[in-house]
Write a structure and sequence with these properties.
Elements: H1 4-30, E1 37-40, H2 65-77, E2 82-85, H3 96-105, E3 109-114, H4 121-130, E4 134-138, H5 152-165, E5 169-176, H6 185-195, E6 199-204, H7 217-226, H8 241-245, E7 260-263, E8 268-270, E9 279-282, H9 288-296, H10 308-314
Parallel strand pairs: 1-2, 1-7, 2-3, 3-4, 4-5, 5-6
Antiparallel strand pairs: 7-8, 8-9
Helix pairs in contact: 3-4
Length: about 350
């Protein structure tokens, strides 16, 4: 149980974090020549092997610290607002805390997505000291199974540690579809998250191209019920999921490659984790001109996209600037939209 003094300290940190979030929103609305969020991969390796995931391997070494700091410096030079460490499993990087501190030294917000397995009280305190702002943990079921080991049974003690010691915001995300055996488990996970004063979200799993994988009536019922759990913060900007849950396309302007960047372990900028391969330009060479081009470039995968981080960031600009540029990819068809090919990873 967190002490009264710690709860007061956490509340103060939360107020300061919200003030920076409002500055982020103001900056994002003010102009379009900078990324709002960048996902960066410090290590591709993961300690788990969930069957629906295509974003990991079991052998990659961590990206060297000096290489990572150079990439973070470039993101700062591009005036990026939020940097999210993902993977693989970012906690496998031995210098992650220093990388988070480096992000904060530039005035950027620092976030991470983790499976939570490697969290300890000591590690949580180190993340506090580094200045982490947000953490998302994925929990897919109550008991581990052949699809996902990210279960409440395994991770509940980790959640208790976070509740007692984390100064940063914690969100628990569950997925529907992708072979998850008991979609109702998401309700149990969500209720537990709220009991521990975390936020709770639900996502609809995509296929290997980031596209909609249809869900059934059970999953839709759970999805609707979990909407009642959601509190008002930036991660709950997911209105599009109502259409996706019913297998319907949505009309929006994807700003990937501009307002949102995905930087792989090789230092290349991609649209997102599921569309690796374009523009695939080294971050060290990425400029405002690239941002302006991709801001106006249409993407054919957009109508059935389920990549929540890209969708949320693109809401900054839903009201302005039509996308009018067609890609020059070799496989282009008669369509004016970008024809994106999956990397198959």
């Amino acid at each position: 149980m967190a002490t009264r003094g710690f709860r007061f300290r956490r509340d103060v940190w939360a107020l300061k974090r919200r003030a920076r979030e409002w500055r982020m929103i103001f900056k994002g609305v003010l102009d379009t020549d900078h990324p709002v969020m960048a996902h960066i991969i410090p290590i591709r390796r993961c300690n788990l092997s969930c069957t629906y995931c295509n974003e990991y391997d079991d052998f990659s070494k961590p990206v060297p610290f000096d290489v990572m700091t150079e990439r973070l410096d470039q993101l700062a030079a591009l005036r990026t607002t939020i940097v999210t460490f993902s993977g693989g499993e970012p906690l496998l990087h031995p210098q992650l805390d220093r990388l988070i501190a480096h992000v904060r030294s530039h005035g950027m917000m620092a976030a991470m997505i983790t499976n939570g397995y490697l969290l300890t009280e000591k590690r949580v305190r180190e993340l506090n000291d580094a200045g982490l702002d947000h953490m998302q943990i994925s929990i897919d079921n109550v008991m581990p199974d052949d699809v996902s080991k990210k279960s409440l049974k395994v991770l509940d003690k980790k959640l208790q540690i976070l509740s007692e010691h984390a100064l940063f915001h914690v969100n628990i995300n569950s997925v529907l579809g992708g072979g998850i055996h008991n979609p109702e488990d998401a309700l149990v996970v969500g209720k537990r998250a709220l009991e521990l004063s975390f936020t709770s979200t639900v996502g609809i799993i995509h296929d290997g191209d980031g596209q909609l994988r249809p869900i059934g009536e059970r999953e839709r019922a759970v999805f609707i019920a979990m909407k009642q759990f959601e509190k008002k913060n930036f991660s709950q900007i997911n209105y599009y999921q109502h259409a996706i849950a019913h297998g319907q396309p949505s009309n929006w302007r994807c700003r990937a490659g501009a307002r949102y960047l995905y930087i792989c372990e090789n230092g290349l900028v991609h649209y997102c984790s599921q569309q690796r391969g374009y523009p695939a330009k080294p971050l060290a060479e990425y400029t405002v001109e690239d941002i302006r081009r991709e801001y106006l470039t249409q993407k054919s995968c957009a109508p059935f996209c389920t990549i929540s981080c890209v969708r949320q960031i693109s809401y900054f600009d839903f009201w302005r600037d039509k996308q009018t540029i067609a890609s020059t990819l070799p496989a282009q068809s008669d369509s004016p939209l970008v024809q994106i090919q999956s990397s198959g990873k």
